[in-house]
Amino acid sequence: MRTGVAVDIGTSGIRAQKIDLDSGEIKKTVITLRNPIPGANVMDHLDFAITYGLDRAHGLVVNAVRKVIKQLGVEEEELQRMAICGNPIQLSIFQGIPIEDLAYAGERKKAKLNIKEQNRDARIVDCSEIDGLEVYPNAKLVVPPAIRHEVGADALALIIKSGFLETNETAIATDYGTNAEMALIHEGTIYTGSAAAGPALEGQQIKHGKLASPFVISDVAFEGSNLRNYVLDGEMNTVKGKLVDPRNGNVIEEGVQMWRCAAPRKLPTGEETMDCEGSIPAKGITGTGVIAIIDAGMKNGVIELPKITTPDHILYLQDNVKFFDKDVEEAGLAIGAIRAGHLALCNAAGIEVADVKKAYMSGAAGTYMDAVKAHQIGMVPYNVDEVIQIGNTSLIVSREILISEDRLWELQEIAKKIVSNHVMFATDPGFKDAYIQEISYWTEGMPFKMLKKFLKKKKLPQIDLPENVAKVDKRVERDIPVLGEEGLDVLEKVGTYLTMKIDCPECPKCAKVCPTGALTIDEEGLVLIRTDLCDGANCKRCINACPKDKFKWENLEVMEIED
Questions:
Q1: Measured CA distances, 64 to 36, 58, 87, 173, 394 (Å)
Q2: 4 - beta bridge partners?
Q3: Contact call for residues 406 and 122 (beta carbons, < 8 A)
Q4: Which CATH number, 3.40.718.10, 3.20.20.70, 3.30.365.10, 3.30.70.20, labels domain 497-558?
Q5: Band of the pLDDT at 266, cuts 50, 70, 90?
Q6: Predicted local distance difference test score (pLDDT) of residue 536
Q7: Are the C-beta atoms of 362 and 158 separated by less than 8 Å?
Q8: What's the CATH class of domain 3-150+483-491?
């Protein structure tokens, strides 16, 4: 078998598949639950790469991808082709391409700093040309094109696989994730943007949150005063979980029963378990479950923004998974960023939000979340007639160009022909004005009527609450529809570290102040930072806790994957 690997490098994790290049058949799937670069969003990753060096960021991502390939069961000599897809920042870091042109907004600023735009056209190169990938001596690396330097291959994948270009209606497509890419088409012109929604939509920065993976709560619904949980099983299918009292977590009714076997077996996480009587367990809640809680809670009065109304301000789900006031705030900021992004694209096109009649949802969150609930709470333009859920378009395109070189050059031609206007939300006044009010709505309890009034005063497109229930066309049940005959492996630990020696091991303040347990220091002064747990630019507590001449991130080195 000639073996290839298709990879989607996302801001919050990596998804990859082993492919038979002759038949195109998917053999196995591996996903990680985090990105290996410190931080929870794409801006953190940019900050890390610019502040501490592109070579460090590049080394972390390459090491993580190598570990994923190893988990897929592909030997270094065996790999013949690798294809990658993702946003411009992730793909540039992986390839070692300078990212300053992505980090700074405004042409005058770039000219002042003498920053040149990098070429991000489609290309095929030997893996040996990329630092860290020379371990694959027989492999080629296939990279899809960006539409523009800041509108990447992931946006192109979303536009093409949705059927977006063929629609005659005014429509919007959104990849729901940490870095929410979105595109609006109106009268043949495409308007693109990217909202740093944050990781709440993928279950991160939520107290008991998890990325979409086996045995996490992906949906909830009230049955009377009790709360029904829905859980992803070992094959990432949504099944009925326990019915619980949300005020205390007491189980009212069990859910779908676990399968039975006489001997221990391995879960997709690598852990061993012995099946027994009882419902499929839950170990956390994913972003889609968060959206469902917000929708159900607001409709049933247990959430009155910005608070949970239970006596202890906690909602209890199954298996001691809980949802807190702070989680409401984190989710609200993400929802608000997406709604403000949609409004900003409409503003750029000179149309009202009400003119958008069709919406496409992609990505893991866009697949598993209840589209009706997403529509009701503002994650989909309020007046749409139809919502279409299309799965992980980035991984699909990665597989297509892995198998077919002709498809790669076809995508390059399509990218050149797309007439697009990119709205830089970081500097767009419409986005700024809208998002400031969204913050007030979600975190301070500002009435929705006041939010609408402010937008009208600023002469921005109007938003409203949905009056209709949109038709939903769910084209896939899972964001990765086919896992392969060898199944799914989940890497909870990406396995990349930054390390250095310091001369003050007797004072472990750096380790004590780390809120995620990412940092350890031994008695000889060897510091290890597990980068996939590190909060990066949003934290820096270790740096601030130590003397500047002792703890320098500039001295950190990427630990080799074998370690």
A1: 7, 10, 17, 29, 18
A2: 19, 81
A3: no
A4: 3.30.70.20
A5: low
A6: 84
A7: yes
A8: alpha beta
